[in-house]
Predict the 3D structure of the following.
Amino acid sequence: MLDAFPIYHWFHNGNPYSGAEGGMRYVITPIKVPDPSDESGKKKREALCAEVWPGPWSIEHTAEEKIETQLFDGDQAGLDKAVAWLHERYTAEADRWTDIPSILDCEPDR
């Protein structure tokens, strides 16, 4: 469901959010990345990692080459951009998300 996402506070508390729209599966995961302003590399900042892949399998059972990943800032504006990216991925390749086989008719990729 690409129209109902939690507010950034959900991710700030370390929670991922996943879902599906048609045959497109997605997850947004909060992560820590090195802060570019810290030369020592010890300081981290919040970020969001958004991933999309075709169903029917979970991300763990989908081939790496089928998974698209994008990083966003760890704030509400970054979340808004991540959601916009998910919408863009869904509409840009509408054919990719149709004709997904049933989980009963195929094997996992990995």
Notes: The chain has a mean pLDDT of 93. Residues 6-95 form one domain. DSSP finds two helices and four strands in the chain. The first helix runs from residue 8 to 12.
